[in-house]
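Two quick folds needed for the group meeting slides. Do the first one here.
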Amino acid sequence: MSIFKRNKKASRGESNSVISVGTRDKVNYSFNHTMPEISLYKALRENIPIIDVGILKIRRLLGGFKVCCENKETELRLKSFLDEIKVGTSGYGIDEFIGNYLEQLLTYGSALGEIALKGREIGALYNAPLNAVSIKEESPLNLNFYLRSGFEEVKCQNPELILFTALNPEPGEVYGVSLLRGLPFVSEILMKIYKTVGVNWERIGNVRFAVSLKDDDSTFSQERAKAVADEWQKAMRSQEVRDFISMGEVSIQAIGADVKIPDSQVPVRQMLEQIVAKLGLPPFLLGLTWASTERMSSQQADILTSEIEAYRRHLTPIIIRIIKLWMMLEGRICNFEIVWNEITMQDEVDHANARRMNAIADEKIAELKRNGGEVYLTE
């Protein structure tokens, strides 16, 4: 038994029906020790836009890939399969599945998916919620997957169809570490600052007035005060410019006019710096116009490239497992290689310039050797 369950209404003779998904139902009980973290990290993405944008940027920067096979006919069939494979209820293509898989991996530290079979071929790929399965360590090198059904746990009988990845797990731990770990405290401070700024502007930005009436005649003070108040309300509620008519000596002051709203630019930037450092993205990719030199931007781009390559190394084994299962079901034996696209066009230019300089150097060395000259290699 796996995460995907067969439809009970289907007859036993039907072999072409796609295995139905059993993890779509919401699970309201705990997911070991990580369920509170799942809710927390989900709330972070919903409440802090820059965190959500950062993860989506990493997903887009991941780029695509192609599979090179020794047999060209197998390569064409495999490409058609990867481009047309159904993902979940409405998605198509291996890129959609890998993008969702990476997003789940970065947000929660672990990613879970499964291959759904259709007869003797792969029918679909599914990104499963983490709270649908309980993962237990059978031995230091083996994991068991248990499907949650009500308050019971049923061991999955086809673990080879389950795809699971943990991001930088701590020694002895099954689950990985979220990219957002360490940000709840910082985000809480940031949310307090934003909320306080909103409250201050609601109090001070929406100007309120104190109207004082001075009158020595105490006999008609109450009636005059009521008349002044009525005139003031009519003047303030009028949609057009209106004169305020009063009697006696009237003093009008804006409440809180002498109060200065605290400058939030410095503390907000300090909190955003922590978030940007955790995400590993250059500030300009997140819409932050911080001062940066050309050399610093180039170094940040290089660091980002290494980060994306590290994420690709986590995803490549998952792609290999899907391709190997497809070849096994198709009865094909062929060596293949996964080639990721260049991350940015700037990388293409840099690589082209490097190849050009190497070619010029090789040509100079060959010319010196033909002329009988000595060649000295220096660092």
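Then this one, please, same format:
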Amino acid sequence: MDINEPMINEEIRDREVRLIGADGEQLGVMPTKAALETAEQKGLDLVKIVANAQPPVCKLMDYDKHRYEQSKRMREQRKNQRIVTLKEVQLSATIEENDVQTRLKNAIKFLSDGDKVKVSIRFRGRQIAHADIGLRIMQDFASRIEEYGTIERRPLLEGRHMIMIIAPKAEKKSFAERSLERKELDAAQLTESEEESNNIDPKPQPKKKIKRESENMI
């Protein structure tokens, strides 16, 4: 038996269990044999869901269906997970404008796909003495791409290489989405305020002083 799988049906050896129905209703503590008979009558499995409790907690369910739905949810989660990779775009200290445009298109595609972009320049020979030219090229490249990405690591010279990292920009929410969020927040705060006011005991009103007839006659 897989240690990650819960015990089901006859695998459960405890003398008694606390049973939960298929719809979540509490059926109480009973002998395991009775719980197994209940599961059989309903055409379900008896599954131990909290082994460390005293007594252990078991639930009635269609275990095969439960496993299928669980694996389906895990597949959906894996499909929706985005693995961020680091793509590279290489520039040069003598790069021409048409090559810059090509590198720019590639970088925009990478950022739009959710990946980070490593922008690098390799200085050849005496070019290293004019690293400031490479810095200006890097800064110009970053300014052209600022609509799609933000500088995560500023241009830094490492040996004969200058490297800059650009991360994709977070998606901006539309005005309608922001307005809806504000309305939902205001509604939640209003509900909370009403609940708090309902829980506050009303202050006792001061009793009015009733004048006696003898006082009126004075």
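Slide caption for protein two: The first strand starts at residue 16 and ends at 20.
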